[in-house]
Amino acid sequence: MAHFDTEYQRLEASYSDSPPGEENLLMHVTNNLTMFLNFHHVYNLHQKNGFTCMLLGEIFELVQLLFVVGFTVFLANCVDYDILFANKFVNHTNSFKVTLPDAFLPVDVCSAHIRDNTFVIFVLIISGVFWLHRFVKFIYNVCCYWEIRSFYIHALKMSMSELPYATWQEVQARIIEIQKEHQICIHKKELTELDIYHRILRFKNYMVAMVNKSLLPVRFRLPVLGECVFYTRGLKYNFELIFFWGPGSLFENEWSLKPEYKRGGNRLELADRLASRILWIGIANLLLCPVILVWQILYAFFSYTEVIKREPGSLGARCWSLYGRCYLRHFNELDHELMSRLSKGYKAASKYMNCFLSPLLMVVAKNVAFFAGSLLAVLIALTIYDEDVLAVEHVLSSITLLGVCITVCRSFIPDKLMVFCPEQLLRVILAHIHYMPDHWQGVYSRGAAQSGGDSHHPHLLSEEKTAWTSRVDVSRRDRGIHLPTSRRREDRVVPHALCHHQPAVAASSRDNPLHPPAERTSPQRGHGRA
Amino acid sequence: MAHFDTEYQRLEASYSDSPPGEENLLMHVTNNLTMFLNFHHVYNLHQKNGFTCMLLGEIFELVQLLFVVGFTVFLANCVDYDILFANKFVNHTNSFKVTLPDAFLPVDVCSAHIRDNTFVIFVLIISGVFWLHRFVKFIYNVCCYWEIRSFYIHALKMSMSELPYATWQEVQARIIEIQKEHQICIHKKELTELDIYHRILRFKNYMVAMVNKSLLPVRFRLPVLGECVFYTRGLKYNFELIFFWGPGSLFENEWSLKPEYKRGGNRLELADRLASRILWIGIANLLLCPVILVWQILYAFFSYTEVIKREPGSLGARCWSLYGRCYLRHFNELDHELMSRLSKGYKAASKYMNCFLSPLLMVVAKNVAFFAGSLLAVLIALTIYDEDVLAVEHVLSSITLLGVCITVCRSFIPDKLMVFCPEQLLRVILAHIHYMPDHWQGVYSRGAAQSGGDSHHPHLLSEEKTAWTSRVDVSRRDRGIHLPTSRRREDRVVPHALCHHQPAVAASSRDNPLHPPAERTSPQRGHGRA
Amino acid sequence: MAHFDTEYQRLEASYSDSPPGEENLLMHVTNNLTMFLNFHHVYNLHQKNGFTCMLLGEIFELVQLLFVVGFTVFLANCVDYDILFANKFVNHTNSFKVTLPDAFLPVDVCSAHIRDNTFVIFVLIISGVFWLHRFVKFIYNVCCYWEIRSFYIHALKMSMSELPYATWQEVQARIIEIQKEHQICIHKKELTELDIYHRILRFKNYMVAMVNKSLLPVRFRLPVLGECVFYTRGLKYNFELIFFWGPGSLFENEWSLKPEYKRGGNRLELADRLASRILWIGIANLLLCPVILVWQILYAFFSYTEVIKREPGSLGARCWSLYGRCYLRHFNELDHELMSRLSKGYKAASKYMNCFLSPLLMVVAKNVAFFAGSLLAVLIALTIYDEDVLAVEHVLSSITLLGVCITVCRSFIPDKLMVFCPEQLLRVILAHIHYMPDHWQGVYSRGAAQSGGDSHHPHLLSEEKTAWTSRVDVSRRDRGIHLPTSRRREDRVVPHALCHHQPAVAASSRDNPLHPPAERTSPQRGHGRA
């Protein structure tokens, strides 16, 4: 890692990993651990709309886990598909109709099936262990958030029922007021919004910084596809495990680095230890890979099949990728502020991306839709004439699949009435995402100048395209906007932010989500400096 | 009723129930009754887009009635469901397919069924009487509107075919012009827009006043649900029956109160008479209740089943409640003006209400949708693999019901990309609905001040929520915005309006629907006085 | 034709059919024919997004032709529908299910069927000849566009992959630059944008002029329907065949009239020759009529059946008619510029037209929807209760057809929440379509004046309605906005444009599609002169 952190070294002298003026205070803070946890939990409880919603959500998650495993095992072992598919007749005494229960095997046959299948038993054990782990965590969470609930009700005087309709700014204002009277944080006389933001966003700020400095290995240059970004939820989880809260992580607790990481001397030794830990985590990932994969496939199947059937157009819907969300995040920006900003830019960004649909794909999609549509037209006409056609095997399946195929094709065909004005759209997007690589500037003003001989559009396309991924993404391969490599050395925003030499951030932290972000006084990242 | 009308008493001295300067004129008006009816009918014919459309609409209504009763009786008595549900075999000589006519019973069996069923005969008689009553009314209407049609063609020089494309302002301008030349109203030299509005809206203005003064018993405090509003079409019909046009109503004819109601002396006696009349109407309602209920269920079933199947999302769609429409109505505001105003505010109001979806319901809906979606996913996958699965009993029903269930759930889940900005939306709504209770004011400016310690949002929610009802509402329980009780005594707008001391109304009556209502010079009701 | 061209005669003295200053140049242009073709092809290749897309598109077109003919012949001759409709049993040895291949006749039976049917053989021969013609044209096009591709890559230095993201203005700018250096056009020292536009749009400008001057017989006065416009793709093709590129057409090559047409002397003789040619082309059309009709029905069936099933609402969707597109086109306006302009006006125009839905149709549609919905409701309820109902013959067909019927009806029922403001919409439309007949002016400002006694709305309606046609239009009867007859004599814009006395057009030709057309400095056609 030594070749990455040249700037970290230069800045290390003036660099302290805790918010300024906090380190010496922490010495005599001993029993306010819960208070530090507090801010994060207080924010979470607000975002999750109160205790009942959070509780219910977590209970449902536990039940979902049980349901997915149980239902899958049931489907695999306890159903006689020959009866469902009418390959075998059922003998009824009083009726000749087949009912669903006829297709279920008796309990003893079913349990014998399960007992004989070692893989099923293995999966059941693994998921049982995982479920117990989740259950323990759930119990812990309930206790923890029960306290936060009391804090809301007794200290902040907000009932859980009015919490969903209070903004975070209101909650924060009350916390600051409370601190003045009751001194809930011992180590500091007065609490500012910035303090609260710092405590909540400690790890997030680190992640943003690491993504912005390209310290994380998320971008690869593949032989055919060119440069692409691989930053999934799984990878993010592993990163957080390694850096923040896993065994042997860099952090002592929720807010401060371990002392040994603050000295430059034992750097190489620490790097070795980190490398070996990463190796072990990698091996654990590899071993658990089949189980995780099966889980993801099952979960995606249960979640998305119905959506694809109902509105197959959602297959082509776009969303901000995990990488994009990390890359476009400001320092000291809470989740709901980021999401509000990105949501405001979504419509324009979506339209912008639709301006650059591949014309080749369009031609192919149009014609595939025609051929599929022709076959479908004949089947529909036959069905309307006489619905006995549906009894012919695979006719209904064909109709369904051809329908899905056509709708997927249609999502690649742009609206004929679309007005092509990418530059105006880009301007709207930038007003919300607040970031533009330096080499976009020519493009931005080209509409007026018309002088630039070399077309930037294809670059724009490949640049922006990766900020989006299909919404229904089974393998959850999230890709993001590429960081222009030239910024890596010049950009001082990242270490500055970590050193808290940013008076503008305080203003940002007071930001009301109702004010459009364009009003912010802090300069736009990257672009503002040009 | 004595405790309600304290203000009525105070104002009674200066109060005349007819437009000013009209009472003495009415003395020597004897034979222009038809002319008074005229304005209302003239407006109706314009709103119904001409004579042919009105005629066709009324004929269709009569046919609908026959159809609903006849079809229901047919379905109940003349169909052999065992054949439809394949519980009984049909013996065909030349084919083995079951056709729809096979399931219909022969005419003699069918008529015997009906003859044996006394309830069916009772229903048939009741609906026959009702239909005849409607038919007589229809004949009367046709004659009446035929005259109006002649008035349009010969007096106003407008053909029926161009009527739909003329605005009411144009029609009105011609009426006023005609009056100058031909003196169609004997009692007055010059006719103004206000006169026309007053004549058309006589009863509506009374209703608006009564709703605004909370004189009508439409708000109840239920044990669990808290205060709720019950103001349905049925109730409205009964109110109109009691006050305006029923036997023994308060009004002599379309425009003037009976003389005995104008004297304060026999007030108690009149109240007693009204009480006994209301009792009798209540008893009549109770007796007819089963028939009305069956009719409403049948009509809702025939009207909405297909809508729910096609787009179940419409179950969650909102509309302005009957109470809200009455409560937000200005005095002297014609139906189309009110609807245009409310339609303009609809989008913002709908978005505003979606900002306050119950988070608890959201969590439950998300998870119910997941479980239902899982089952549906398996059924869909099996069906695509081999459509013989559909032949298994209740599989298709399950697919349909699960699909409906999921779509209903989805209507409770807000869009992930929704931007939360209720105050801006509220501002937009207010620009159209022109009314804000006093205690909203803090909320309105709170975005800037941030000083108010107590959260008003939950109040807002319960306040606004009741202004809306689900569009598909079988029981037609309409609820509306609560009238703040503090206004009851201070608000002089209502009696003022009745006394016509309102010069601003004349301007309002000249209002072009093309001008946004924000340009009106008249102060906003309630809020404008603050 | 003599009575049509009074103005042509008056202007003929100063009229030259070639762009100014070009005629004498053409004398010594001998070998740059390919260069003249070039501009049109260069533009086409840009619009079709590069060589690969164009190639693929043309190949798919050839395959589509084969597919439609082959598939139809197969369906007509090689399928045993009795098996599909379960009127005949299949004897399987191992299973009792009917599969699709069971319904296909063996190859020898099938080919015998075809051989016996002379009509099929006739159709096959005709379509074979047509396909070969298309194939030869395809080969020619490939060779031609391969050269254009080289021109793009080597001369303009644009790769095919970046072409879709370059605007036409960029391509044009490079061509002009290239001309300065390499002198690609021999006959002129400097090439301007106007030159390029003239070359590309030579024929289009003629068509626009002829439509604007009502020289083409596209408007008829029918006994019942009143004046209507008949201008289909087929008619347009025939017009182009007659005037521009067919054997014996008026043009010598892509840019200049035959010399004999430039002299006024042999006018009558030429008119006779043209008349006889038109007669022969008419006879050819009549003979090919059955084949063309069958083709159009088949193609419409294959293209639109699926669309109608999926979203029957598209039946009521509107689009700019072929006549409207021609009538609203500026001189020297490229296809993409016109389409961008019309697309911008589409939304407002569509809303505007929905303001004038026939109220009579609305009443009928509402009630038909109610009756169909009632029947559908019963069928759906029965199906959900027990899906064996679907096995009854024609139940499924009824459900499908009733569903389509209801959705078609719904497209005639306006949204209840629609705000009626046609004048504002008309203003928005005019900002994009740039044209308003003189007699609209009263309507336009009537909202303020309110003085005009005669209602113009019905005229507006019939005027505008014809500018639209239903998007799914089997017979492709395109209708357009009527040209007000009073303009025919006064309007000098048309001959002026042909004589190129229009400095504003040059500015227009430099127009960037990103600039909204409202910024154009050239006066609006027709209206601007008022």
From TrEMBL, chains A, B, C:
Reactions the enzyme catalyzes: a 1,2-diacyl-sn-glycero-3-phosphoethanolamine(in) = a 1,2-diacyl-sn-glycero-3-phosphoethanolamine(out); a 1,2-diacyl-sn-glycero-3-phosphocholine(in) = a 1,2-diacyl-sn-glycero-3-phosphocholine(out); a 1,2-diacyl-sn-glycero-3-phospho-L-serine(in) = a 1,2-diacyl-sn-glycero-3-phospho-L-serine(out)
Keyword Acyltransferase applies: no
Stretches for region Disordered: 504-530
Entry keywords, A to Z: Acetylation, Autophagy, Cytoplasmic vesicle, Endoplasmic reticulum, Endosome, Glycoprotein, Golgi apparatus, Lipid transport, Membrane, Mitochondrion, Phosphoprotein, Transmembrane, Transmembrane helix, Transport, Ubl conjugation
One GO-annotated biological process of the protein: autophagy of mitochondrion
Species annotation: Nothobranchius furzeri (Turquoise killifish)
Record's bilayer topology term: Multi-pass membrane protein
Annotated family: Belongs to the ATG9 family.
GO CC annotations, alphabetized: autophagosome membrane; endoplasmic reticulum membrane; Golgi apparatus; late endosome membrane; mitochondrial membrane; phagophore assembly site membrane; recycling endosome membrane
UniProt-listed Pfam families: ATG9 (PF04109)
Keyword check for Acetylation: yes
Gene designation: ATG9A
Protein name, UniProt field: Autophagy-related protein 9
